[in-house]
């Protein structure tokens, strides 16, 4: 028997949920765009210019001229010269600033992972400065075209012109700050720190939600029915509450066999449903209303991308063309903290309805997968460097202090450490370097946390 909604009330509610989901996804897209703050600030400056023209029409400059004459421009030629100079100067600032941003993005793409570019673009501080430039330009142009308008009872909007001068001085001050900020943002330390901060915040939020959930019940979806994808693209987020409501409405349970961030292909199955629906096409269409697709890998949306970006930056730093082990070590330090946080998060994410029934099982990379995907590339490209090997051993040693509370993850740490020592045994030939590595391994063994001792490197001669 179909559980499809039949009343107009349910249809309206479904439409509202669809609209809210779309609005939420569009909002996330807009606020991560480089044009969000510039557009918003420009509109505010345009509104201010119209307000000033309205006040000028009511004699604001005339009243201020009697009290503060130095603030009012009374000569038409001087006013036009000032506004023309402001317009030209601000346009030059805008062009130069955007040129600097493009150079920064090009350098970041060449020297670091290209996937860190969206994070640089969405830097709110730089967007607001560009918005100030554009807003000042819009304000000045609106005032300029209204000089000597028949609408006014005075010859010139003198105070509005004075405000344009003030805004220009503020633009010059922020231009100096912009140069400082852009030179700081291109430094790999700042990039790694921003990725770490975003990933850490997302992980802490996931951990907080995970602790509020009930332990997931064991289930076997092997006999469930597959649902095929309606579109091709990178599936990045879901609108959780409406999705749970949709499953509750149809009385079904979903089990996604692809994690968020996966590339879905139209016509290929990606999710299982616990029973066959008579109107599966309608359910599938409504399901995709609560799924968002975009190309960018944003750590603020999916913490797994943060691990990926930091790892790729470390691997890029270890490439022969860059050869910057210091950056790789910094990336390893940030990965240590993030992996320690990931230990606290369960490997299953289950969404429940208001009655406490599991409705959505979301697949996410396990701790073992995150650990391997984060450390394996660094280990592969840095296995000939004693500094990198010691850095990875130090990472694993720090995680052993945390793993006591999560004993089921000890085996993963042992396997990863054993692989690291296997590569070091084959690649590192210097006796002194081997001694340093063995000393670090002995310190790990002395913690007596792992189920068995790690092997030492063989000493040549």
List keywords for this structure.
five-stranded mixed β-sheet; alpha+beta; disordered N terminus; flat; three-stranded antiparallel β-sheet; Aldehyde Oxidoreductase, domain 3
Structural class: alpha+beta
Q: How many alpha or pi helices?
A: 16
Distance between the termini: 78 Å
| Domain count | 3
The geometry reads as flat
Largest sheet: 5 strands, mixed
Strand order, sheet with most strands: 1-5-3-8-7
Low-pLDDT ranges: 1-7
- By CATH, the topology of the largest domain is Aldehyde Oxidoreductase, domain 3
Order of helices and strands: HHHHHHHHEEHEEEHEHHEEHHHH
Query: Mean pLDDT, rounded to whole units?
Result: 83
Strand % is: 5-15%
How many strands?
8
Going by CATH, the architecture of the largest domain would be Alpha-Beta Complex
**In the CATH hierarchy, what is the class of the largest domain?**
Alpha Beta
CATH superfamily of the largest domain: Pyrimidine nucleoside phosphorylase-like, C-terminal domain
Radius of gyration: 30 Å
| Share of helix, binned | 55-70%
Written overview of the protein:
The structure is a single chain. The chain has 461 residues and is an alpha+beta fold. The protein has 3 domains: 1-6 and 215-367, Pyrimidine nucleoside phosphorylase-like, C-terminal domain (Aldehyde Oxidoreductase, domain 3, Alpha-Beta Complex), CATH 3.90.1170; 32-186, no CATH class; 383-461. The protein has helices at residues 8-31, 36-57, 60-67, 76-111, 117-121, 124-144, 158-185, 188-212, 240-250, 280-289, 303-317, 325-343, 367-382, 386-403, 410-427, 431-445, and strands at residues 225-228, 233-238, 254-256, 263-264, 269-273, 291-293, 348-352, 358-363. The strands form 2 sheets. A 5-stranded mixed beta sheet has the order 1-5-3-8-7, with helices on one face. Strands 4-2-6 form a 3-stranded antiparallel beta sheet. A hairpin with a 5-residue loop joins strand 7 and strand 8. Helix 13 (367-382) packs parallel to helix 15 and helix 14 packs antiparallel against helix 15. The longest helix has 36 residues, at 76-111. It is flat, with a radius of gyration of 30 Å.
